[in-house]
Structures are given as structure tokens and as C-alpha cells.
Design brief:
Blueprint: E1 3-9, H1 19-27, E2 31-32, E3 35-42, H2 46-60, E4 64-70, E5 78-79, E6 82-84, E7 110-112, H3 117-126, H4 141-155, E8 160-166, E9 168-169, H5 170-176, E10 181-182, H6 184-203
Parallel strand pairs: 1-3, 1-4, 4-8, 9-10
Antiparallel strand pairs: 2-3, 5-8, 6-7
Helix pairs in contact: 1-6, 2-4, 3-6
Length: 204
């Protein structure tokens, strides 16, 4: 059976809730147009999360890899265009703070996703969900995981990989107090629509 690896993260920094976990857990095991979604959760740890992703890829052998991340403060669904070979930012959940580090020494400076991000954004907007392409996944864990997924995709013909940032859920927005939020059901539906567009592009 053809599989889609869908990943999210545990809570981190000032975000005591991570809606990517809820989305991944909700969609885990769902069938979409003959593809099975395999949902997995990653640690917010630069070293551990990369190894976890590689392990999940080895276990599931997915045709499609879609990783999700929380972008607290954004108010649109934002598929990411590019991942860069840099780790830099605030502390991960184990207190590690990378500064100007390469993900891979001597690695490619950047990779562009081969997910159909324009189709995703168009479909979401048509369905009434605010969305736009983002041209920066930052330099924190989200970029790190996007880069790792794209390294795998470049090494294996026919594999699609990429990353989607989501806004906070209502629960997180209330808990945090200073960021906008979406209904979790709308977040789940939006990611399902992105998956549908990816399958369509893969099958064409």
C-alpha cells in the first residue's frame, strides 16, 4: 500500500499546545485516494528529530513526506518553498542552541520542495481557507526537518517531500494570549486538502 508520512512536533518554547500533534494523530491511518496516511510525532530536538524522521522513513517507505510545523503568529496555512542548510535559533527542548551551523557539512545550500505548493494554496483559497506560499521556513526545527526530508527525496526518485506551517489552534491562541488561532477542525481539513492535491500531482 502506498503511504504518506505525515509528521508533527511536540510542544515547544512558549507553546504549551502544538496543534500539529492533533492533526497528525487525527489523520493517522486515514485513507485518501488509495494512499494511507502514517502519522508520527517528532521531538523538538535538533539531533533526535532528524534521526526520528529517518527512522520513520525507513519503517514506512513513503511515497510522500509532508511535515507540519506551528508558526505561532501566522494566520494563514503556508506551504514552504525552500529549506536551507542552516541550524540557528532559540533553544530546542533539551536546551541546545545552534549558531550558524550547517545541517550537513558540505551539503547543498538549499533545496526547493517538490510538493505542489501552488496547487495547495489555490485549492485552500478556493475552499475558503486563507493560504499563501512562504519563502522561508526559518532556521529552527521546521527548516531542519524540511531539509532532511528533501535530502531523502533527492536521493530517491519519485519521492515528494516538503513542509507546511500552520497557525495556532483556538486552544493554543487562548492559552498563549497573543497570537491568532484557527478551529482545529479547519486545520485538519486544510491539511487533508493539501494531501489530496499532492496525491493528484503525484498521480498525474
Amino acid at each position: 500500500m502506498t503511504k504518506i508520512l505525515l509528521t508533527g512536533f511536540v510542544p515547544f518554547l512558549d507553546y504549551k499546545i502544538n496543534p500539529t500533534m492533533q492533526i497528525v494523530e487525527n489523520l493517522n491511518g486515514e485513507m485518501v485516494d488509495g494512499y494511507e496516511i502514517v502519522g508520527r510525532i517528532l521531538s523538538v530536538d535538533f539531533q533526535q528529530s532528524a534521526q526520528q524522521l529517518k527512522q520513520y522513513i525507513a519503517e514506512t517507505k513513503p511515497q510522500i513526506i509532508i511535515s507540519l510545523g506551528l508558526a505561532g503568529g501566522r494566520f494563514k496555512i503556508t506551504p514552504e518553498r525552500i529549506a536551507i542548510n542552516i541550524k540557528d535559533g532559540e533553544a530546542d527542548n533539551n536546551g541546545y542552541i545552534p549558531v550558524d551551523e550547517s545541517i550537513y557539512d558540505g551539503g547543498v545550500d538549499a533545496y526547493i520542495t517538490n510538493l505542489p505548493i501552488r496547487n495547495m494554496v489555490n485549492r485552500l483559497c478556493e475552499e475558503g481557507y486563507p493560504a499563501e506560499i512562504s519563502n522561508t521556513a526559518g532556521t529552527y526545527l521546521c527548516n531542519n526537518i524540511m531539509y532532511e526530508g528533501l535530502v531523502y527525496a533527492k536521493q530517491h526518485k519519485g519521492i515528494r517531500a516538503g513542509f507546511i506551517h500552520i497557525p495556532a489552534s483556538f486552544d493554543l491562541a487562548i492559552q498563549h494570549g497573543k497570537i491568532p488561532g484557527w478551529n482545529i477542525k479547519d486545520l485538519i481539513t486544510s491539511i487533508r486538502l493539501c494531501i489530496e492535491e499532492t496525491i493528484r500531482a503525484t498521480n498525474d
